[in-house]
Specification:
The chain is an alpha+beta fold. It contains 12 helices and 16 strands. Helix content is about 35%, strand content about 25%. Bound molecules: adenosine-5'-diphosphate and magnesium ion.
Length: about 400
């Protein structure tokens, strides 16, 4: 059997660019080379795409200019019949010597954050009709939007903390009204978050009106929509990863990420130092974790079931980590958020389940190939019916509603 060519994409136009390079190279390193032929695709911070052997060595990224001058610029046209990675510029005429494209059988996006995990890249893969790992457009986009995500949790009866939201525009035109609406709806302490960012950027905790105002000022720098949540005081965070698609789902062991005293800032996590006032935050890069989480067996079971439910209602596929908060007093569980691939492949949780990284990557690619086939089947069925109707009744009737 011939090998499956998998474009592994990393980098990208996001603050988590560097983390993504590391993830991408790890995915390539751990891919089963007897089955797959990985092609590195590095996306610069400006959004240019490159491929080439030299991208495989992390040391080369120290001299980015030099690296890019040796790598080859490529692009993916959003056209199914051209669903390959093309070298740029396209060579035309009789004298083209080099291969002009690499045929891709699948794509493994190893991005973190914006323009990769949020459905935009997934939209391009859909247009190009190439199988890809992880959630499709809807799951990816909804997973990045804390407001819509929580609305869907609520509509499906999944437990969330109380929350409310507003537009930056509304706040700027009537601060008093927005603040009093929030204070009427929620109790302090509150968490103020930009709707669309991850990695704790722009998130603050407010214990009173004064802190609420400054928290909002921070958040509106980052987004046009802001969510405010009731904060849980005495709680533990529990994460659980789900692998699969549709209703064929596996939930991992639960973990308790490192227990921060307050919580780490983005600077603390990524830049070390200079944490700005009002930007105290926490996030995905725990340095220590408890696996399995030290919670009663029935709570783990409840969380695992909820995790699968979250995955299903957001129509996710591949692997996602779902984060929960467990209130200590009454042991009530709340869903906090989902982190779609690969912000969280959470491979350490799957190791625990004896699904090692190499196998996880294999399963993810196989899921991608399967759902792609399924998806294309739907479209062809639809097409066939339309053509049948059109040929028996004429085009006039078939287009009539
Ligand atoms: N409602 C809340 N109550 C208590 N702690 C919270 C709440 N919301 C967020 N946090 C804390 O802030 C962290 C970051 O918030 P989260 O919504 O997960 O944002 P991000 O997408 O940046 O990870 C959480 O991991 C948790 O420690
Ligand atoms: Mg989080």
């Amino acid at each position: 059997m011939s090998k499956i060519t998998v474009g592994v994409m990393f980098g990208g136009r996001t603050v988590e660019h560097q983390v993504s390079v590391i993830t991408g190279l790890q995915v390539i390193e751990n891919m089963d080379k007897s089955k797959y032929d990985p092609i590195p695709i590095f996306v610069t911070k400006e959004g240019d795409w490159y491929t080439g052997e030299e991208l495989l060595d992390i040391k080369n990224y120290k001299d980015l200019g030099g690296l890019l001058s040796r790598a080859k610029k490529v692009f993916l046209p959003p056209i199914p019949s051209m669903g390959y990675l093309y070298f740029y510029p396209i060579k035309t005429g009789f004298f083209k010597k080099e291969a002009e494209y690499i045929k891709l059988d699948a794509i493994f996006p190893a991005f973190h954050g914006m323009h990769g995990e949020d459905g935009t890249m997934q939209g391009l893969f859909e247009l190009a009709n190439i199988p890809y790992v992880g959630c499709r457009v809807t799951g990816s986009a909804v997973g990045m939007d804390k407001i819509i995500m929580k609305d869907i949790f609520k509509a499906n009866g999944l437990p969330t903390v109380n929350y409310t939201w507003f537009l930056r525009k509304e706040y700027e035109s009537n601060k008093d009204k927005i603040v009093s609406d929030i204070e009427n709806a929620l109790k302090y302490p509150m968490f103020v978050k930009p709707a669309n960012l991850g990695s704790s950027i722009g998130i603050s905790k407010a214990h009173n009106k004064e802190e609420l105002l400054s928290a909002i000022e921070v958040a509106i720098h980052y987004d046009r929509r802001i969510i405010v949540e009731e904060g849980l005081e005495d709680m533990v965070e529990i994460n659980c990863s789900v692998l699969g698609s549709d209703d064929d789902l596996l939930a991992s062991v639960c973990e308790q990420p490192v227990s921060w005293q307050e919580f780490l800032s983005f600077d603390d996590k990524y830049m070390r130092g200079n944490s700005k006032k009002g930007m105290k935050t926490a996030g995905m890069t725990a340095t220590t974790r408890n696996v399995p989480a030290p919670i009663p067996e029935e709570k783990s079971a409840e969380i695992k079931n909820l995790a699968k439910e979250v995955f299903k209602v957001l129509d996710c596929s591949g692997v996602s980590r779902i984060d929960f908060m467990l209130r200590k007093g009454d042991m009530q569980v709340f869903v906090n958020e989902i982190n779609t691939i690969p912000g969280s492949m959470a491979f350490y949780l799957w190791e625990y389940e004896s699904i090692h990284f190499k196998e996880l990557i294999d399963r993810l690619i196989q899921i991608a190939l399967r759902i792609h086939k399924d998806h294309n089947k739907n479209m062809y069925v639809f097409d066939t019916e339309l053509l049948l109707k059109a040929s028996s009744g004429g085009t006039k009737n078939s287009t009539k509603r």
